[in-house]
Design a protein that fits this description.
2 copies of one chain form a homodimer. By secondary structure, chain A is of the alpha/beta class. Among the domains of chain A are: about 160 residues, NAD(P)-binding Rossmann-like Domain (Rossmann fold, 3-Layer(aba) Sandwich), CATH 3.40.50; about 90 residues, no CATH class. In chain A, the strands form 4 sheets. Chain A has a 7-stranded mixed beta sheet. Chain A has a 5-stranded parallel beta sheet with strand order 10-2-1-11-17, covered by helices on one side. A 3-stranded antiparallel beta sheet of chain A has the order 5-9-6. Chains A and B meet through β10 of A and β10 of B. Bound molecules: flavin-adenine dinucleotide (2 copies).
Chain lengths: ~350, ~350
């Protein structure tokens, strides 16, 4: 009766569902949580402040087709993310740019002279093998120690030398004064929130949404032709090759009786305290209130799967599962859990669009 | 695989689901809308104000067991509803009490002398047949004209003499100064809203919730033992005896840049304008904001089924369906649509509790 059973109601699953529904396919989405929107879920908390349940989510993309697609379902608040990082008692822009250096060292570099600085500190002689090498090849050991070492250890409980170079490669080093966290052409927050946008995406007569249900409990009950699976790939195969490791997070939410707690949406704490960062949601959402909610993030090893841990060993384990997945007929694995890969929202939407193009 | 299929995710269905789940039964709720909570659904609108989508809902009951049951899933804001009605350019308390009379007529009655007034105006000689008789037997023709005739006509597009006496019997006439709309012992609004309370009720591993799905589209697909049906009873039987008439509503929501729009939660307009009443949600929810959302209600004949129309003819039609329902094995009809009867929230919860007691 259903053409597609989609496991997971995050952006991957919902994008597939919408596109399939528009092609006349009947779709059932099964989601084990009690809400739609996956990790992009936002909601009004008990103090009436719009918060992101699974950590702050900022949408940014260079893919016009992704921006245009989502813009069918939401207007945007044209927000551009800014992050400060707390180093030696000072708040400095992150990623590192000219101002970061000048504030930290009391220097006066400009865009003509900053090259001299980076040239002086960076290590040119190394063969980049891991996340530590990646950083010191660009900014040397001192900035590595201040900005990256502690943060990475908190976040992964691993030192950068134990992690793939891609982990730190994602964060640029700037030769200008651009203090935006991302430099993608399209950036914003859905004007009424992610959940609202995703609700609009789901608003189609060919889509049914089954919440609070693990797909394994109903897959034999429901007739369907094909499956799109956005859950953890190891769970699909009953962990036959062992569990794929994930890094998890604990989110500590706090509402304060003040208009604003900090000057920007996110402040990183690489070296102080146990949390990695503090986010204040009103900066993201633009909501007005005389209260404000902040969120501290603590990394931990057990719990909900958030970040695939990018080590060589884990990649090899994933490849075993991937091989099994390839053999299956009519089952497609996508999304950050289906592919065991940290992926931003825009990329999961893009990959979902490509998948549907390919199979329908 | 499911012990129960429950049609409708309003308070009737959810109460049954929770009680069954706690008895170890596996339950699937099917809901055609894209949200839980039925007509009690509340949500934060685009201006960040918590509103009731299907008109203002105030919880009030004299049943301790109902209050205690729901209190497992929510704390309460101890709100007591107050309504004013706009008569001859004045705002007076509704239901009619001593102050209503004194403001309207410039008199000085007190609880010792108010009997004289009602005795003078009420019609003692009539045999109460309909909703008009009911009122004039208590307060006479003039107050009937001012408070009831216009409101009833707007609300039902019928004159009170065309409606069952129960319609106006629900509204008391007070011999004291109690200006609360309800006088039940337990009154309140779920502290974080109805949707949040109902989400907590649903939070049980034996409950699955299928949204955006008409039960007819999946009932043959899913294995279940028994059904609890809280949708419209005539739809269940494919309207074989004809459609049961409902009165519908159009809700007009408006957000204003002011702290409060009116002094109380609800003001009735029996004679002026086309809407029946204006509700300002912040009075109900206690939310603080420098904006406020108000809702005007317009009654209409077509649309979502809200109020069963209490006429003799409709009761007879309903009885035909009820007879069919009785014959069925393992299907139970409850709730305001299943029983074609206007029922307050507390009563649907009570009836659901009784049903589960009876069948399990
Ligand atoms: C802390 C944090 C911050 C982030 N910030 C950003 C950001 O700022 N910008 C950005 O672009 N991206 C960000 N991301 C990434 C973003 O969250 C992902 O790109 C996105 O959530 C992926 O969508 P998805 O649909 O693949 O997965 P998900 O959103 O995780 O959805 C998968 C769904 O499948 C469900 N599921 C799993 N197993 C089962 C099962 N057995 N049965 C039924 N359902 C199941 C899960 O409950 C989940 O709801 C962030 C991620 C994290 C962890
Ligand atoms: C304007 C208004 C104001 C009210 N104010 C109050 C108040 O102040 N206090 C109070 O106590 N009560 C109030 N009520 C009454 C209250 O709304 C009801 O008591 C309550 O909603 C009944 O719950 P229910 O579960 O029986 O029905 P509902 O809440 O209507 O739930 C039934 C559900 O079944 C779903 N459904 C129908 N057909 C199908 C189908 N074919 N397949 C799948 N799903 C289906 C519907 O979409 C709906 O969500 C008010 C009612 C209205 C209309």
């Amino acid at each position: 009766m259903f053409n597609y059973l989609i496991v997971g109601c995050g952006l991957s699953g919902v994008t597939c569902a919408r596109l399939l529904a528009e092609k006349g396919k009947k779709v059932l989405i099964v989601e084990k949580r009690n809400h739609i929107a996956g990790n992009a879920y936002d909601f009004y908390n008990n103090d009436g402040i719009l918060v992101h349940k699974y950590g702050p989510h900022i949408f940014h993309t260079r893919f016009k087709e992704v921006w245009d697609f989502l813009s069918r379902f939401t207007q945007w608040r044209l927000y551009q993310h800014r992050v400060l990082t707390y180093i030696d008692g000072k708040l400095v822009p992150m990623p590192i740019n000219i101002d970061t250096i000048n504030i930290l060292y009391g220097t006066g570099y400009n865009s003509l002279t900053i090259h001299d600085f980076y040239d002086k500190v960076k290590r040119k002689d190394i063969n980049i093998q891991n996340a530590r090498d990646m950083v010191i090849s660009k900014v040397g050991e001192e900035l590595y120690e201040k900005f990256f070492k502690g943060y990475t250890k908190k976040q992964w409980d691993l030192y950068p030398e134990e992690l793939d170079k891609e982990v730190t490669a994602r964060i640029p080093i700037r030769y200008n004064r651009d203090d935006r966290y991302f430099s993608d052409k399209y950036q914003g927050i859905p004007l009424y929130g992610y959940t609202e946008m995703i609700k609009n995406m789901l608003d189609h007569e060919n889509i049914s949404v089954l919440l609070q249900t693990d797909y394994k409990d109903i897959q034999d009950e429901i007739k369907y032709d094909r499956m799109i699976y956005t859950g953890p790939i190891d769970y699909f195969f009953d962990f036959v090759f062992g569990k794929l490791p994930y890094r998890s997070l604990r989110f500590e939410e706090e509402t304060l009786n003040m208009e604003y707690y900090q000057k920007v949406a996110t402040i990183n704490y690489p070296n102080d305290y146990d949390f990695t960062r503090i986010t204040e949601f009103k900066h993201l959402t633009g909501q007005k209130s005389n209260k404000t909610t902040i969120m501290k993030e603590y990394a931990k090893s057990e719990g909900e799967p958030y970040y695939p841990i990018p080590t060589q060993e884990n990649k090899e384990l994933y490849d075993l599962y991937k091989r099994e997945a390839k053999i299956l007929d009519g089952v497609y694995f996508i999304g950050r859990l289906g592919k065991y890969k940290y992926t931003n929202m825009d990329v999961v939407v893009k990959e979902a669009m490509e998948l549907i193009d390919e199979i329908e």
